[in-house]
Amino acid sequence: MSKNVKTIKELADELGTNKTRISRIINKNSIPTQKIKNKIVLEDNSVSLIRQYFKNETQQQNETQQQNETQQQNETQQQNETQQQNETQQQNETQQQNETQQQNETQQQNETVSILRTELDKAHSHIEKLSNLLDQQQRLALQDKKLLEEYKAENDSLKALKMPTEDTKEEQVNSQPKEEVKALKFEIRALQEELNKQKIHSQEEREKLKAELTTPKKWYQFWK
């Protein structure tokens, strides 16, 4: 083969491609060829044109590939950024939900503690009231005992005044003026009435305190 011409295969091997691509460049750009001994050959001018077209096409393919890679990288980066934004937003929403739930739990705990403290204060107040009532009952019992002792002593004194011995009865009547005897009887009657009033009042107080202490209390109401 002449040095001034190249076959399609020789040119394809030189450019590192295949015959199909060289043929496509020739047909697309109407590059002139020759046929020698039933073989298609290319002269130097045609070879130069094919080299230039191949270079341009390769460069264009590389640029297109680079653009595609850049676009793919941009899309991937955008997807990553969008995913990161979504994850950040989801984290923020989760954190906000947790904070809101924690605040609600804290508020509920505070309300529960406040209710328990109120009920505890009520229970303490009721216990203190019962304690005061018990103390009052004890005082009333002592007072009743004292009144009974005084009443007994006064009663004994009255009996002694009303029932003198036969030996001294006539002597007392004769020795005391009638007016003094009358005043003494009136004073004794008034004293008896006062003792009876105190006894009745003491009895009423005891009955009232007893009824209040024996009334069943609904303790569970303090802990609802």
How would a crystallographer describe the biggest sheet? 3 strands, antiparallel
The counted number of beta strands is: 3
- Give the distance, in angstroms, between the N- and C-terminal Cα atoms: 113 Å
What share of residues are in beta strands?
under 5%
Shape: rod-shaped
Kindly report the spatial arrangement of strands forming the biggest sheet: 1-3-2
**Fraction of residues in helices?**
over 70%
Mean pLDDT across residues: 82
Q: Helix tally?
A: 5
Q: What order do the SSEs take from the amino end to the carboxyl end, as H and E? A: EHHEEHHH
Descriptive overview:
It is built from five helices and three strands; from the N terminus they run βααββααα. The chain is mainly α and 224 residues long. The protein has a three-stranded antiparallel β-sheet. Helix 3 runs antiparallel to helix 5. It is rod-shaped. The chain starts with a strand and ends in a 10-residue tail after the last helix. The mean pLDDT is 82.
